[in-house]
Amino acid sequence: MFRIRTMFRSVAITASLFVLGSLVGAAELAAQQRETNAPPRAEQQRERRQDGKGRDENRQFRGGQRGSGEKYSIEQAISDKAQLHTIAFSGLAFLTGDFGASTFIPPGKVCDYFGFQYMRDIDAAGKGHNPMFLNRVAGNVLHVLNDEQKQIFLDLAEEQAPRLEALAEMRLPLVKAFHVQRDGQVPAGSTGLNKEAVSRYVGDIFAQDAELSLRRAEAMAQVASSLTSDQREYFAKMKFGDFNSWPDLDARDGNRQRGRPASQLVNVAYMTYVSEFFSWTAGSVKADTYFCPERHGTYFGGFYMKDMPAMGKRDYDISTSVTGNSGQAFVDDILTSEQRKHIDSILDMQRPALAETVKVREAISQELRQLLAGQAPVQERVVALGRRYGELDGEMSWYYATAFASVNQTLTAQQRAALMQLRNLDGYKSAPYYIYSRAVNIEPDLAGVDSFFFAPNAE
């Protein structure tokens, strides 16, 4: 095992709030790194998103109606087309990127059982992938909660920040192992990555994620149970999935009065809890279960490639089509038919694991939502479900890593040049590694990377 010791510098709340937006698409990652001289990215188109009708009975606050049509759903997320192009996008990022880029992940991609991803994806105003989205929902929640209720979230942020950092650190040796496989530098005598070892390790990561999620749900339920009738009435007027129905309040205005945070990660966690409080209490099991196609296999640099152009920009809509378009171009226009087979074959191999993932996420949501009804879920069951979720993610990630490595072995110089052009990140340089989206400008101390590979002469 390894340990990386870093200290978070104190940053002003206003700057930190740019970071918080990584929870809604990383357009707000400016607090961690500004690259104002980098060239603009071609894919900056905007899409308006329409959400689906209806809301189930599990939500706490009953606001207005949603728009018609449902573009984003769990069925769409696990469809072959969405999965193929998302996996291909990860492959493009992995084959053109480096270790540092592969460690980059928005904080909102952990402990994500609270409906925020669904709320942003179905936003009728099309603002779900803009930093204004998080700032406005958080601004309204902070406007309504009293000091005692806010303190519950702040105490939780201070409690969980060290564990959230450790969770990010756990990813690093796994990412390194995938790069070792990609580059053909496996330990002498080993036949390559061991699927069971990868799956088991990611299970450990997700088990800790589940513990943090349960504690987060307990705090949210505590605040929900303390709401006054006036507070409930205010939240009920805010429509889930409709940015334009929320009063124009900005979280940055209220937080300037709160002073400087103990650390950047404490502030990120605090704002996460505040924003997810609304999405969870106004949402449903359906919203909690939902995930976007890139939720799994987050070890290959896709988020870096997608989000980096948003760095330093306050009002930036990350294109909702860049993943699909770039992934499609990767497999359709650059790979040969033989190379593409490695990517196409993943769909059938991961299908059982992907289907089980939906069931596990739904079960976790149902367990956590017991707290809103005044009941206590069984911690051992929540953690066991989280561990199983991680094992499934590890299995799927092994499929990706080994397929990408096989493609990498056969790429021509012309193909590599075409891939770099498709990456479209000239002028950007990754940090040695990232703790979520915060750059760490020292080399990590890694140990145990060889444990992810078959031992020499082992089958």
Any chance you could write out the topology, listing elements then pairs?
Layout: H1 13-20, H2 74-77, H3 80-96, H4 99-103, H5 116-121, H6 131-144, H7 147-182, H8 195-225, H9 229-236, H10 251-255, H11 264-281, H12 285-289, H13 302-307, H14 322-334, H15 337-369, H16 379-408, H17 413-423, E1 433-435, E2 438-440
Mean pLDDT: 85
Low-confidence stretches: 1-58, 62-69
Which outline best applies? Answer: globular
User: Topology as H/E string?
Assistant: HHHHHHHHHHHHHHHHHEE
Largest sheet features: 2 strands, antiparallel
Number of helices: 17
The helicity comes to 40-55%
Strand content: under 5%
Spatial sequence of strands, sheet with the most strands: 1-2
| Gyration radius, in Å | 21 Å
The secondary structure category is: mainly alpha
Strand segment count: 2
List the domain count as a whole number. Answer: 1
- End-to-end separation in angstroms reads 24 Å
What does this 3D model show about the protein?
- The chain has helices at residues 13-20, 74-77, 80-96, 99-103, 116-121, 131-144, 147-182, 195-225, 229-236, 251-255, 264-281, 285-289, 302-307, 322-334, 337-369, 379-408, 413-423; strands spanning 433-435, 438-440.
- With 459 residues, the protein is an all-alpha fold.
- The protein has one domain (13-450).
- A two-stranded antiparallel ribbon has the order 1-2.
- A hairpin with a 2-residue loop joins strand 1 (433-435) and strand 2 (438-440).
TL;DR?
The protein is mostly helical and 459 residues long. The protein is built from 17 helices and two strands. A two-stranded antiparallel sheet has the order 1-2.
